Structure formats: structure tokens, C-alpha cells
Here is the input.
Amino acid sequence: MITESILGTDFLIKNAKEIQVVIDNNAPEIEKLDQEIGDGDHIFNIQRGIKLVIELEPIIKHLSMSKALNQIAMKILSGIGGSSGALFGTLFMTMAKVSNIDDGIDYKKAINMFVDGVEAVKQRGKADVGEKTMMDVLIPVANCLKEGVEKDIDLKDLMRKTIETAEKGMLSTKNLLATKGRASFLGERSKGHIDPGARSSQLMIKTVCMSILNT
Amino acid sequence: MKKFLNSTDDFLKESLQGFGAAHKDIISCHYNPNIITRSKATKKGKVVIISGGGSGHEPMHGGFVGYGMLDAACPGFVFSSPSPDQMIAASEKVEGGAGILFIVKNYSGDIMNFQMASEMITGASETVLINDDVAVEDSSYTTGRRGVAATVIVEKIVGSLAETGGSLKECKILGDKVNRNSGSMGVAFSSCTVPAAGKPTFKLGPDEMEFGVGIHGEPGRRRDKVQPAQEITNELLGAIIEDLKLENNGEILLFVNGMGGTPLTELYLLYDNAKKTLDNKNIKIARSLVGNYCTSLEMQGASLTITKLDQELKKHWDSPVHTAAMRWGL
Here is the structure.
């Protein structure tokens, strides 16, 4: 099941557009979360990044997958800047490096790309589960997907499971003490708020899973 | 928000254009990506010193590009790290063939972006990480001590060594040494406003101060009622002296740094108060710097930095420098 469909650059653009709608709809909530424990610019960074990726459509639709992902990575790096730019840039740059992606991508390969990407983000940010960052969503999601591939779970069941895992990870950040990023300077004051990066990642993952469920 | 600006999107661009035009004898500004380089080409065989960070701390870092200090600076958006393409463009522009030393303040974004840049450039590079802010505990449970005003001291001293033929390794060792021997702590009387955000980063009551504030308005050790200057000075110096384990009869550099919204009159008053405290402890101020060098937009406040000196550090501090923000010995 998992190895059937072939994904191209149109999949990237379609999902970026759907993510843009979801993020815009949830922007006030994310901004408020960030003002409570961060410096308030996360939502602007994410919105700017998504806009830049969508603007790449005419260029990347004719490119191979590895080149398209590299273009996206460089655009995000320079266009967002700061920690978000480096982390999301690393995610896409690493996905581009997975071997043979230009020979066609099925869901199994796509999952492997994402899993590799998350591992690279983890290394780049030196953050793990439990530090009140987006890694509290990304790492459990990567593990869930990896397990799904190993056990050859039905794709739609796996997407539903992934949505649940992302939501659980996002909610878990509420009572955590921030030990990475700007929120860490707040110490105990960081408790009681959901991490804005965890919320935005969870929304993006949910959007992609939903779009696969609806195809 | 009251600021001199036309549109928040053009804030940085117009400021850089003005900086480039006003100091075209010393520096050149380049755009897409934004970098500031010396107007004269780097001489062959010289180690290149590149720094960078979010904008909003002017004159840091662009104001320190020039003879005897930096070869290039990479300004990010306000309070946001520059991206690797800026560091790569800067290193290509000023390459001297003897390697690149990056001077990076200890913030997650800066570290990640400079790290990606050093992975992507060809050729030798080293990084000096600045973490002089004694207000924040350095432990594995936080991002660690922040890099603040001592960055100015490191850039001056290492810049001098590079100018006089120091190797990449020697520059790295000296940079680490200056950082290790420096401690800073600041206090804020008011917040600052990031243009894109449009409202103050944090709220302080009219009679309150944030003790141990960071250069982006991050929280410090505690919030308190404003105290007399001498008491504030004593507490700031106390924390720094304890951290550096300063001993009697030691020689230091005392740096009184304004955050952007405090007049020089008050900074010199702080210097006077600090001198009294240090005199009492038999700590000798051998070198001084007073002014707005590592700012936080329009924040009212100041930081004190102490660097322990020896002959080597004094020599490189005194050597000629010609930048937009610092000039002596020429």
C-alpha cells in the first residue's frame, strides 16, 4: 500500500498552499503563544517562509525533486533567517540528499526522507524530546512513521495515527520547562504554555496527513 | 511606536544604505545578501575576521569593520541571526588565503547559521563563541550564557592580532582567551520596540528595572524597583568580579556600555561609581571604554564589562584601529 503512489514537486506546492491557509487561520493563536514565552516573531517567520516557498512554484515545478528541495532549503535559509531558517532549511536540505529521490518517490521513500530530515534538525538544534520545542512533535511523528513503514501499516491508518501523535506531542509541551531557545531564559515562567513552534509544526503535519487521507 | 522609519520592510535596507554612504571611506555595504566589508581589499595572507548577528545592536557589528578590527560583518534582520548565504558571500568577498575566524555570540540562531556557513564554505575556518553575560547561569539545562558587550573587546583585540600577522590558530586562541577573561552584566530601565513587532518587547513599570537584562530585552535575574546608581553599580560589579574571580592589584579594562537610550552623561556617572568601587577593591582600571557600542535599539539602560588584562591584551587593545565606531592610534 505504502509503496504505490509516486510523488512529484506538485505535491510539495499543493501542500504548501494548504499549509498556508491553515497557518493563516491559526495565526492569532500562534502569535499569542509566542508572546507569552518567546519574542513574538515565530508566526511572521513561518508565514514569510511559506509565502516564499509558494512563490517558487514556477521555478521548481520543472525541477527534479532533489533540486526543488534544495531551492526550497536555500530560500527558507535566507528568507526566514534566525533559528527557524536554519532548522527548516536543514530539514529540506537533508531530504534532498536522500539517495535516488529523482527516480521517483513513493510514500515509503517520502517517509524515509522526512525521518532523515528530522534527525538532521535534531542534530542542528541539539534539542531532543522534552525540551519544549517543535522536536516534541517532530521526533514522535518521525518515530511513528518509521514504525508504520516497518510494520507495513495501511497508509490511511498511518496518517490517522500520525495526526494523533503530532497532537499528543504538541499538547505535551504545555507543562514542560523550556531548556532550549529563547523561552529557556524564562525558566519556571515558561511552564503552562504550549510551545508555539510545536503548535505550528503540528498544524503543518496534520495538514499534509489530511491531504493524503483525502486523496 | 515612534521611530524614524518609512516602512518596516525597508527599515534595515535604508539604515544600511545610510551607513554605507556615510562611511564610504572605510566600508562598503553590499545587498542581496546584506554584507558590510572594508572598502579596501584584504591583504593576501591575512586571517579574515567575520562577525555578524541580528541588527538593532548598532554600531555592532558593521561599525567595527575596518583596519585593525573586522574584515566583514553580516547583519541579520532586527534581533534575528544572519543566514549562511550572507556569511558565504562575505567570506568570498574578503578571502585572504589564511583562513576565516568567525566571531559569534552565544544564541541558538547565530550558532546554527554560522555552523551551516562553516560547513558550506571551502577552506579553513574557526569560530570564537562569546558568552560573557554573567546574569545567566551556564548550565546544560539552558542555552547558556549570552554573548553581549565583550564581543566589542574580542573583536578589537583579535582584529589587532590578525592585522599584525597572527595565524588562524593564534587568533582563535586569543579570542577564546579574551572571552574567558571577560564578564558583563546589564540593567534596563525601559523596553525596546522591534520595528516589525510595533510594540515594546516587554513591559516595565515607571519605577522598575530589569536586572541582568539581555541585549534583546530577554529577562534577567529579577525585576526590581530602580535603585541609586551606586547600588546598581555595586551589584553589577559584584556579580562580574565573583564570576571572573578578580584579585586585588589585578589590571582590568572597564567598559561602560549604553543600551541606546541612555545619555552619555549617565554612562560617565556610572563609570565614576564603578571606579570608586574598584578603587576600594584595589582593582586597577588600566584601560577604559565608555559609550554606546552594543545597543538594544532604543532601550534605556547600560551594561558593565570587565576584561582582565595582561601585556598581550593591552598591546592589542592599544594598537591602531580605524572603523566607523572606533578610531585611535592613527
Q: What stands out?
A: The longest helix of chain A spans residues 107-125. Chain A touches chain B through 27 residues (CB under 8 Å).
